[in-house]
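Suppose you are handed a protein chain with no further information: no name, no annotation, nothing but its sequence. What can you learn? This example shows the usual starting point.
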Amino acid sequence: MPYRSLSSEQVAAVAVALLGGTARPVDVEDAAIKAYSLGPEWFCWTRHRDQIDLQAVRDALGRAEKQGLLRRVGNDWLATQVAADLAAETAKKVDKKPPSFSPPMTDSDRRSVHGKNRLVHTRAYSMYMTGRPDGITEIDFYEFAGMPPVATGSELAECVDLTDDLVKGDSQLESLWEEMRSRFLLEK
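A reasonable first move is to predict its three-dimensional structure. Written in structure tokens, the prediction is:
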């Protein structure tokens, strides 16, 4: 197996690259599962070889960062070009399509992805997607817009503008936001 010739930090970096970490940050737990699948001997407990040792993965990711293979983004990880090249080279040995390199996400892109992720995990979105938009409350509106219930003036306008930007390009989010704006913002 070609991954046996790599160090644990190289396997961890390849795992991040294979998970799309050249284009978007990869969560440590996702990296752990992939790294374990590539090199279980590096990332398991001594007495329980079928269990992932998350600390071993974190340590390997940290060493990979020091070697310039990865870059930390909050609690997530991005693969550098060196890691992408290593993943591509190693993938050729196992007849897998090598990952393509995409430049790292900008801070603005990261905020947008995080913001949309937050929106689709709100109660308002769940109610809307299950055909129960009438069950959306004013509190759901505030949660969706990321604003405190006492927001007024410039704070309210800033939250509305930010949510306007976050929903752009997603027809379901746009439709939900328009419906909530018409119901709850007119009351303000």
